[in-house]
Here is the input.
Amino acid sequence: MASPELPDRATSIESYDKKEGGFNRVFVFVLDNGKRIVAKLPFSLAGPPRLITNSEVATVKYLQSKTSIPVPNIIDWNDDPVNAVGSVYIITEHVEGAQLHQRWPSIAGGDKIRFVKSFCRMAKEMVDLEFPVYGSLYLRGNLTSSEHFVPLNDEFCIRPHCGPMFWDCNVGQARFYHNLAPNRGPWPDLFAYCDGLIDAGISRVPPTDAESESRPRYHGSLSAHLKLLEHGRRVIKEIAKDSRVQDAAHPTLLHPDLHKRNIFVAENDPARITGIIDWQSTSIEPAFWHADETPDFAQVHEDESDSSSQLCAKAFEVGTWYYLPRLFTSRLMDEAFFRPFRYCYRTWKDGAVAFRQELVDTTRCWNELGLPGACPFPLPEPDDWSSHQREYRLFEAAQILNRDLARVLDVATDRWAPCDEWERVKASHRETYDGALQVVLANEDPDSDEPLRTEADLREIWPFAL
Here is the structure.
């Protein structure tokens, strides 16, 4: 492709605003004709540059051809990192309306309910699309003859999943293929998808662990991870045989982050959706993979004083039942069916103890779930179980600490903070650690179940460098 050109007879850029998120650098340009355009350049941790760019463009174009969902019009794009810009990019028109995140506090309760209904009706168009396999959407014109793909029509196809969970793109989360070859799809059925999840987990386990001494004790050894993952493969494949799970696994396309910051509404009617942005890493997954996601406008928080939030949560449940039965069926099912699928590929990140607990819980409720025979995972022996419980309590403490720190420091749960907030976060972080340490040391007589007894315990699970 040639260098990008300005649209609609614009000749120059009057001003711009740069925004940096966790996965992209975004520029909002104001042109000399008064129009705004948006240029998005992904960071490496967003995924493989060529694939995430091609797939996002294909997803937007596919939705434009199959639905009435308001998506940004693409002006120009390039999935070749070696171009005049020096990066892959997508340039779109700026969507009309106001960001829902900014409007939400001032929207009346009745209008919020009308918005939720509009949202569910819009989502139905996407969820009801039919796909033959799991993977990501791409444009066929950019294929090489050697690439495996499943055609949808002359323009679109499904190729490997472009999400970062299947690629070596996250800092500190390298991939290793000494045990097996990459398995990124497309997957023809749920059993093949199960192998993709487990193989993604195995690919995170390195051949040697030079940092074992610095990891929390609940992390587990190399052999523990590999053994757990093979147990997990047998467990999720056995669960996948169940007809209820098969019915809940229909290949389904859904935006991965349908929250207020990615939704725009009309200035004069907050129930009318004018744009959905940021389709990066949208993929075709089993319906149950999407079903546990609740948008932030339909969540109720413990400290929520606005009574309309409860009405929005109820409206979302009713809207999901009426407009999105493919997702609602999964939401009605016991979460124990799906938790092993959701956590199996994360063992090296979360620690072996977390997935071991999931498998233990699954084993214990196997018959209650109506699954035949016995669970393929053997329960730990008594001594091993005692050790596991101690490690799991420490893991739980680490998760609570990470969640509370994100709230106190006002950063993302992955601990990302904007550059202009860094000094504030750094100062607050040190103060927060000192306060937490005082709480730990003040507990002179902790009970036997207390995982944090010393400064060494606190430092072991503290998620930031000190």
Summary: The first strand starts at residue 13 and ends at 20.
